């Protein structure tokens, strides 16, 4: 099976895990802190305000708590987003308000976001679809003017930039995902960054039970004079911190990340070249000047009457494709009555092709040949 997503792991990661085993310290410790520091340097962040956590979803829930969102508050987010963002909003009693997206880029424009703002809007959560930054700089400026917090869900954008500035550095709060299907993987895991220093200190506490010190051992190491085992609980938190085992994998993956992204860029360019003349296949729009993508997704758009049939044809020959993310304004739990034609069109037409650094040139040609044959047959109303 040619998978749509697939991590790249090997001897370096195994050696890093073995070193953690040999240290006899698997939990939150020195490798976690090193990973936080190295990722902060990569993304242009303040290390002390950067927290390795167990998932980007945990970061979304923490962001809602840090911003004190609750009943009566509205949070704007694109309908083409991961369900974790809407769940975080709704679970706090706040109201998700979905904005439309451009049907070709699947990212919202600043105008899409602005149309969804109301006097009760307290925050905007912005996804960078497939790693494409979108109008993040303009949306960040809009949020500043309107006094609305911006949360960057940079799960897809681990190496995306606008004029050299990394995605995740535009918002008040940001999170990245390192789950098993991402580019940089730790199995499960994520990174959280909080721009405000005091709010970042609170995030550290909330990520570990509300404790001022993560453990008696760390308190003793900070010079607590005696009874370092006593609890100092400032507020009620939970445990969502990462650990040294997964951080060790992350450190290796972070070093390998430029090579991963370079290969993904090559594959995307090859898809562009090989599919340019296929009638009925629309390719992703070119990136705007000054933007660089992580190339997490590569998508094509097809006539909605054949899109699902083409996906089934490809699966029959061992090529897995999919669509992400299903439009949230169609989920009954979040309410009804939304009119978002761009999101609806994107959901009817878009298909993600395999894109990961493990694909070789032969795999790419296999995908292209399979897609070309299926589209030609389905448009002609035939199937061998």
TrEMBL record:
Keywords: Aminotransferase, Pyridoxal phosphate, Transferase. The keyword Transferase applies. CDD domains: AHBA_syn. Its cofactor is pyridoxal 5'-phosphate. InterPro entries: DegT/StrS_aminotransferase, PyrdxlP-dep_Trfase, PyrdxlP-dep_Trfase_major, PyrdxlP-dep_Trfase_small. Its EC number is 2.6.1.-. The keyword Ribonucleoprotein does not apply. Belongs to the DegT/DnrJ/EryC1 family. This is DegT/DnrJ/EryC1/StrS family aminotransferase. It comes from Micromonospora reichwaldensis.
